[in-house]
């Protein structure tokens, strides 16, 4: 192993940071941390028509939210185009590449012939050994690499093992287009070399690219980085991941109320494991992660498992830390801004007090905010359909009796209100649920909530009595 591992994450800014890209970034970051190395960030923005500044900003924001930090400034591939041209021309001077003047019509003819003969389309090398002096006047040639014609190119992959590619299938591919723009295949090699990248960790859809890129490394006499092609993520049904499975931008997961540390834990387990450990802290993941332990087979994304894991993380969080996390996440949640606007000092204090009961019932921050809505709801409460059903005439009589008990209380806390409710149950011969359910509906407008005694304690005497009285009236 070299003195220091240098990994890189190289997204294209043609959209948000999707979940597969986030896992690739995570594996690079974990491996760099595990080995005491560093992870660099390169924005592969050579596709000028599809690359946008908004997408670049979204990628940086997504990585920052996940806590996947990188060393130095992000590098723009587009800004390095002159360097890519220089290397392509250097390869021509070395006799390792050549100018090709084949016309679009000639290239189409080659493709048609290959199809007719049942072969994959390949460039036939017609300019490989010709002199540029034979070029048509004013023709702008593309530069093609001289790929080896015989034998095979072998990729020594840390995940996939040794993979060999027949050189006849690689053909003399273009590294610099006739308009002077480098191809992705070429730009990646030059950038990785110049950035000192020692390990390339990316999706296994790039495995065939690895063979072509190895040809360029060898032609320049550069060391080929270690490569690790990780399996793609599939949906729970085994089909290629799509938006219906969860192939969404990372910002969508924030809006769905997932904690970044829970999402990282879940992503790490997609294709990699450490024994039977399901829940892992970031330091544990860094300590245990090794790229060689990643599975070859595709991993399956399962929302139910992610949600369950997120719930584990929320319940394990300190109440104050979870409150702070909710506060910083509310602007990203559906209707979160409305909730935030209603949180005055009193409501914030009530929310913190309610946190132990709220987090036991929620798997996401969206569910947490939804469960806490009764704290900021305006009087008189809008009842949901189930709450309306509960509050019939019998239930309102129960509320009247409860109101009388509560008004007689000295101290007001979860213990004293529970004593009052149990006393009412004894006096009336009703089961506890027959009293708790109408109280819950009156206090929260819903049929489900944290424990009703906790709700009474959180809302306090004045607000609780007023909400109960609203429903009697």
UniProtKB/TrEMBL annotation:
ATP binds at residue 243. Residues 113-140 are annotated as: Disordered. GO terms for cellular component: cytosol. Residues 333-471 form the Aminoacyl-tRNA synthetase class I anticodon-binding domain. The keyword ATP-binding applies. Its EC number is 6.1.1.17. Pfam families: Anticodon_2 (PF19269), tRNA-synt_1c (PF00749). This is Glutamate--tRNA ligase. Catalyzes the attachment of glutamate to tRNA(Glu) in a two-step reaction: glutamate is first activated by ATP to form Glu-AMP and then transferred to the acceptor end of tRNA(Glu). The lineage of its organism: Bacteria, Pseudomonadati, Pseudomonadota, Alphaproteobacteria, Hyphomicrobiales. It comes from Manganibacter manganicus. Keywords: Aminoacyl-tRNA synthetase, ATP-binding, Cytoplasm, Ligase, Nucleotide-binding, Protein biosynthesis. It is found in: Cytoplasm. One of its GO terms (biological process) is glutamyl-tRNA aminoacylation. The gene is gltX. A motif ('HIGH' region) lies at residues 11-21. The keyword ATP-binding applies. Transmembrane segments: none annotated. A motif ('KMSKS' region) lies at residues 240-244. It is an enzyme of class 6 (ligase).
